[in-house]
TrEMBL record:
Cleaved signal peptide residues: 1-21
PROSITE patterns: PROKAR_LIPOPROTEIN
Domain SsuA/THI5-like: 125-281
The UniProt record lists the keyword Signal: yes
Protein name, per record: ABC transporter substrate-binding protein
Assigned keywords, A-Z: Signal
Stored InterPro entries: SsuA/THI5, UCP027386_ABC_sbc_TM0202
Source organism per UniProt: Candidatus Flavonifractor merdigallinarum
UniProt KW Signal keyword: yes
């Protein structure tokens, strides 16, 4: 039992995904990894390396960065349309600071952080939504199948004061459950919640991928009872529950419009490759420094809800932003972003 608890805590520390609004001390980004082998290229450069546009690209650990793994491998091999200088960071604050100084041109961010940064600076545009919801309700048992079943239960959860809390409260309310009086929600750190679930001391927990993935791998009695994307749809919530996106600095976009279009082409291909080929993609995810262990990456890819939603389809996130705004206006910077936030060529 002690060994399981220690392993859970180790995995939790390694799996910080930056999707809980970037709390904690910033970590230094890692450098571009060497190309994984074998990894077929999604595209071939049309110009020599010297002629390709240099793009300072930054991704986050966890689901928000997973879809870029193939692109990162191709960039290291020199087979991409752009010349990508890639960083992988642990915290969104690492990336917003570098967007501000111009050290990063294109970055993956949690959608709430992107909205807040835009409302503060007006200096970025959203290029694509890259990750749907990655929250899961885990149960050590078989009695909970809908959020309505949480009435009268104790739920251990992480993400208080951030998106997970606001989404949980919203969906519980839609399911006729008062989150303040009818569910005993125990807010703890991700490490604490994982340890309780792995040891069997807790029956119910809300965790994001890949932290949830780690629990499922360590305790075979725990199941993924509810995918919050499904819960969102079943509750009749409008719009798209989308937790991750990529943004571009306006100045870079104005100076390099073709490079941005090429990025979107290669990024969409990378996401499709990772999503459709988890066994081949898992080593690339690890090589990129996005997830620490290949078995975790392999199990997490199908649960990460990777997408590449661009153009006017991105506007479906406005309903999600409204949910966050109604819960706490500061969570998205005080306003639902206007049309200028979205890249609509």
């Amino acid at each position: 039992m002690k060994r399981q608890r220690w392993l859970s805590l180790f995995l939790a520390a390694a799996l910080s995904v930056g999707l809980l609004a970037g709390c904690g001390a910033p970590a230094e980004p890692t450098s571009t990894p060497e190309a994984a082998s074998p990894a077929p290229s999604a595209s071939e450069p049309s110009e020599t390396s010297a002629q390709r546009t240099k793009v300072n690209l930054a991704m986050l650990n966890g689901p928000t960065g997973m879809g870029a793994a193939k692109l990162i491998a191709d960039a290291a091999a020199g087979t991409t349309l752009n010349d990508y200088n890639v960083q992988v960071a642990s915290q969104p604050t690492d990336l917003t600071a570098k967007l501000n100084t111009g050290e990063v041109d294109i970055a993956a961010l949690p959608t709430n952080v992107a909205a807040s940064y835009y409302n503060k600076t007006g200096s970025i545009q959203m290029l694509a939504l890259n990750t749907l919801g990655v929250l899961y309700l885990l149960e050590n048992g078989t009695s909970v199948n809908t959020l309505a079943d949480l009435k009268g239960q104790t739920l251990y959860a992480t993400g208080q004061g951030a998106n997970p809390e606001y989404v949980l409260d919203y969906l519980l309310t839609l399911n006729g459950v008062d989150p303040d009086t009818e569910v005993d929600i125990q807010w703890k750190t991700s490490e604490e919640v994982q340890a309780l679930m792995v040891s069997g001391e807790a029956k119910l927990a809300m965790l994001p991928v890949p932290a949830a993935t780690g629990v499922l791998m360590q305790n075979s009695d725990v199941r993924a009872a509810i995918d919050f994307n499904t819960a969102w749809d079943e509750a009749g919530a409008e719009g798209t529950f989308t937790m991750g996106c990529v943004v571009v600095r306006n100045e870079f976009l104005e100076e390099n419009p073709q490079a941005v279009e090429d990025f979107l082409t290669e990024y969409a291909a990378s996401i499709e490759y990772v999503r459709d080929n988890p066994e081949e993609a898992a080593p690339l995810v690890v090589e990129a420094g996005i997830v620490p262990k290949e078995p975790i990456a392999l199990a997490a890819i199908p649960q990460a809800n990777l997408v590449c939603i661009t153009g006017s389809d991105m506007l479906s996130i406005r309903d999600y932003y409204t949910v966050l705004y109604n819960a706490n206006p500061d969570s998205i910077g005080g306003a639902n972003p206007d049309d200028a936030f979205y890249y609509l060529p």
